[in-house]
Structure to design on (189 residues):
């Protein structure tokens, strides 16, 4: 498993200047034609979202008062509860509004036909399955990888690739207030 702390990941500005992205993982690494990608985005102002044709996306509010995503004729959705995922097609041209100011979201993207993703809020141990990729992002409390791995707190987590050796043990909660987002990224073929 690969450990990360969002605050130490380099931030890249969006093309439209409306926010910044901190990439957790992109596989295969270093290519625009990713199979799957996980990042944390800071959305600083209202504006358009970039389209990603052929990609399915899942956004989950992490901090802030929320973000309203609209696509005329498709949906108008306010993401106002932290830890509640919302999936949509990356083919759509979306607009984002920030009714309460800047916010932070977890962004999972998978190439349609190659991967699928399921994002769930969890409070119990998570054991990644062999052949699957994924991300565990800590929302609150303390978590630990295996029996002697580092203790993870809010904004930290782990990711693994489908080609990685199956992790030994699970990622386990250590405190009663422990909550995390688990993105299980599954190959389709």
């Amino acid at each position: 498993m690969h450990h990360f702390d969002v605050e130490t990941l380099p931030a890249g500005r969006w093309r439209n200047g409306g926010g910044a992205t901190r990439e957790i993982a992109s596989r295969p690494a270093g290519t625009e034609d990713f199979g799957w990608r996980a990042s944390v985005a800071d959305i600083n102002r209202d504006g358009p979202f970039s389209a990603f044709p052929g990609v399915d996306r899942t956004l989950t509010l992490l901090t802030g008062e929320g973000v309203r995503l609209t696509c005329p004729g498709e949906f108008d959705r306010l993401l106002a509860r932290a830890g509640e995922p919302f999936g949509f097609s990356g083919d759509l041209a979306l607009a984002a509004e920030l009714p309460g100011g800047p916010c932070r979201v977890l962004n999972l993207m998978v190439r349609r036909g190659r991967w699928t993703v399921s994002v769930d809020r969890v409070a119990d141990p998570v054991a990644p399955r062999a052949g699957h990729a994924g991300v565990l992002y800590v929302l609150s409390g303390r978590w630990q990888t295996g029996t002697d791995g580092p203790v993870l707190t809010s904004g930290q987590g782990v990711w693994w690739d489908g080609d990685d050796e199956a992790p030994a043990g699970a990622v386990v909660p250590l405190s009663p207030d422990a909550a995390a987002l688990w993105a299980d990224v599954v190959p389709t073929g």
